[in-house]
């Protein structure tokens, strides 16, 4: 490799265009093909780096206009136009070209890259995308046996009447689609009734199996994280508890509701995670899940690799239901699967069968869409920064507000909000009460590090609350410390994202223990036994997905950042049940609303 290339790579790694691993990847490509041009090698390195940024591929038509850093006293490197670069890549022995009749699966392992149109993939991710698209379309065209719309509508009306619930047309369509199609996708924001829809799907599935004199449906409730799985299970349990007080004991629905599954698990656990082979699960195409109905909540958080393995493991005759919010932040890993499916169904060019099974819920029941949180999230999703700022400045409901602080550590309004928000939890009289008040308030941050990042704000909260006598942090473990698990521990049944609190345990001579709500039951643990964790007065918006808090304060940096996007702001605001405060400059908020996440992917086009 030439010294000029080495200087360029050093510059790109320093400027975080590439990671250190990408440098080694490029060097591997160069060894595999010593005659490869700089454009081919650098495109291959950028395709690998794109995966870390959530993309499935590198779009060649964006390279020529991309501003890339240049080493001092060196000529800038400029990629050729997309058509020229595509021709160069297609001639490289490093690249497979299915468009020209080459099948990547038939090529030997020396072909690490795949070119399709203007999209350059790592071989593995091209296979993930192609296999998932095939699986989605195959499942979308299949329908369940003997479930006529009239029969479903009649049963649905009877159950709704017995439960004293009114379903709007969108909810009815979603429930019917989920029970008619082998694949259904239901997308909606907070308060659009997704939990109610899940309950009706489960109950009707049980009823229809009983009417057909079939064994009870084998149902799996899944979510991508332990926290999301716990919330799903608790939501179903709460719905069952409420309806058991509404439906008479002699109703035919009483037994069905009592028999509904009320526990959920992570996708990894359901598929059979194996520590010795972490990318190969026990359940797959040749050993499918024992299920007739699989419901996946928070599907927007599922990446391409995991979704691919899930589709492979769900039996062909089972129904698969994906629920989520297409407008939320996508998965941390590569892909925006839920968004791609909804895009393909909505653009009029996708499969008609796919579109029939995709339902977007627009009717919210929690917030008034004309004011407060409802109006703000609507404006953010529409990309209307002027309207969003107007709502933040003029809202009369008290639900949303904007503050442009000079310095958070000297901002009395911010400090008063922290004290008001955290005091109910910290002054609780029991660990159960502390846990119950833990979700009253949360600080949400766009970044982990930096002056207004999650780590700095956690330290600031600890100092402020200690100064007011609400905390006594004399060691790592102190009464009132809110904690969030950051690594799964299946032996303890604690998972990434689970929130708990450190408190004295009456059962253990008032020694400090970590308390969590696990499956609706309060459990306590020795702090030393816990998996990896962090303090959680403040948390990143990404980590808040799947959570709800009575009130949130969203703290933004003073300067704009690529991490600040429309989806991030929408996700942050929609975590609040009652009130949301944004601490940040108007210009930063406006820029974020105007910046939409666009992940490079060919999935929507394949569908």
| Strand line-up in the sheet with most strands | 7-6-8-9-5-10
- Note the total helix count: 23
Contiguous low-pLDDT stretches (5 residues minimum) are 104-108
Instruction: Quickly give the structural class.
Output: alpha/beta
Q: Terminal Cα separation, in Å?
A: 41 Å
Please outline the major beta sheet: 6 strands, parallel
Radius of gyration, CA atoms, in whole angstroms:
26 Å
Shape: globular
- Proportion in helices: 40-55%
Arithmetic mean pLDDT: 83
Strand content: 15-25%
What's the total count of β strands?
20
Structure characterization notes:
The protein has 607 residues and is α/β, with parallel strands linked by helices. A 6-stranded parallel beta sheet has the order 7-6-8-9-5-10, with helices on both faces. The radius of gyration is 26 Å and the shape is globular. The model is unreliable at 104-108 (pLDDT under 50).
Topology:
Layout: H1 3-14, H2 20-32, H3 38-52, E1 58-59, H4 82-90, E2 95-96, E3 113-116, E4 119-122, H5 123-140, H6 149-162, H7 169-180, E5 183-188, H8 194-211, E6 219-223, H9 226-246, H10 252-258, E7 265-266, H11 267-271, E8 293-296, H12 304-313, E9 319-324, H13 337-346, H14 352-356, E10 358-361, H15 372-381, H16 385-394, E11 400-403, H17 412-426, H18 431-437, E12 441-445, H19 454-467, E13 482-485, E14 499-505, E15 511-518, E16 521-525, E17 533-535, E18 538-540, H20 541-544, E19 549-555, H21 566-573, E20 576-583, H22 586-594, H23 603-606
Parallel strand pairs: 2-3, 5-9, 5-10, 6-7, 6-8, 8-9, 11-20, 12-18, 12-19, 19-20
Antiparallel strand pairs: 1-4, 3-4, 13-14, 13-17, 14-15, 15-16
């Amino acid at each position: 490799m030439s010294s000029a290339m080495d200087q360029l790579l050093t510059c790109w790694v320093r400027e975080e265009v590439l990671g250190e691993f990408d440098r080694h990847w490029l060097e591997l490509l160069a060894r595999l093909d010593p005659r490869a041009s700089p454009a081919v090698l650098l495109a291959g390195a950028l395709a690998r780096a794109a995966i870390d940024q959530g993309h499935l591929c590198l779009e060649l038509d964006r390279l020529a206009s991309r501003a890339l850093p240049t080493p001092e006293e060196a000529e800038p490197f400029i990629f050729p136009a997309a058509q020229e670069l595509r021709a160069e890549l297609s001639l490289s022995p490093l690249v497979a070209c299915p468009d020209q009749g080459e099948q990547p699966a038939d090529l030997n392992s020396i072909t690490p890259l795949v070119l399709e149109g203007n999209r350059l993939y790592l071989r593995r991710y091209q296979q993930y995308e192609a296999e998932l698209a095939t699986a989605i379309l195959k499942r979308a065209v299949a329908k369940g046996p003997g479930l006529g719309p009239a029969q479903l509508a009649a049963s649905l009306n009877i159950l709704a009447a017995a439960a004293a619930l009114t379903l709007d047309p969108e909810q009815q369509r979603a429930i019917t689609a989920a029970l008619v199609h082998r694949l259904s996708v239901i997308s909606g924001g907070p308060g659009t009734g997704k939990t109610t829809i899940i309950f009706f799907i489960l109950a009707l599935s049980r009823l229809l199996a009983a009417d057909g004199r079939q064994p009870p449906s084998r149902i799996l409730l899944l979510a991508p994280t332990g926290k999301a799985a716990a919330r799903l299970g608790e939501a179903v349990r709460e719905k069952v508890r409420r309806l058991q007080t509404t439906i008479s004991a002699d109703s035919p629905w009483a037994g069905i509701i009592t028999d509904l599954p009320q526990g959920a698990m992570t996708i990894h656990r359901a598929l059979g995670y194996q520590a010795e082979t972490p990318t190969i699960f026990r359940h797959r195409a040749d050993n499918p899940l024992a299920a007739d109905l699989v419901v996946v909540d928070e599907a927007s958080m599922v990446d391409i690799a995991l979704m691919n393995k899930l589709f492979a493991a769900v039996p062909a005759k089972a129904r698969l239901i994906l629920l989520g919010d297409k407008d939320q932040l996508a998965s941390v890993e590569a892909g925006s699967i839920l968004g791609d499916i909804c895009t393909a169904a909505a653009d009029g060019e996708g499969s008609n069968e796919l579109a029939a099974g995709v339902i977007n819920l627009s009717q919210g029941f929690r917030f008034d869409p004309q004011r407060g949180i409802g109006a703000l999230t609507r404006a953010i999703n529409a990309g209307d920064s002027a309207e969003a700022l107007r709502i933040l400045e003029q809202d009369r409901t008290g639900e949303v507000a904007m503050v442009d602080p000079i310095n958070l550590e000297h901002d009395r309004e911010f400090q008063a909000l922290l004290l008001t928000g955290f005091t109910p939890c910290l002054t609780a009289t029991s660990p159960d009460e502390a846990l119950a008040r833990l979700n009253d308030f949360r600080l949400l941050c766009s970044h982990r590090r930096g002056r207004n990042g999650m780590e700095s704000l956690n330290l600031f909260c600890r100092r402020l609350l200690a100064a007011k006598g609400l905390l006594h942090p004399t060691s790592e473990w102190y009464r009132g410390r809110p904690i969030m698990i950051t690594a799964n521990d299946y032996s303890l049944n604690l998972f990434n994202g689970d929130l708990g609190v450190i408190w004295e345990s009456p059962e253990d001579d008032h020694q400090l223990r970590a308390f969590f709500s696990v499956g609706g039951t309060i459990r306590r643990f020795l702090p030393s036994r816990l998996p990896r964790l962090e303090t959680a007065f403040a948390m990143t918006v990404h980590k808040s997905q799947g959570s709800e808090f009575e009130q949130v304060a969203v703290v933004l940096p003073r300067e704009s950042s690529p991490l600040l996007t429309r989806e991030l702001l929408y996700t942050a605001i929609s975590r609040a049940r009652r009130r949301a405060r944004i601490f940040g400059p108007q210009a930063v908020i406006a820029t974020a609303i105007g910046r939409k996440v666009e992940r490079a992917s060919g999935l929507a086009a394949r569908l």
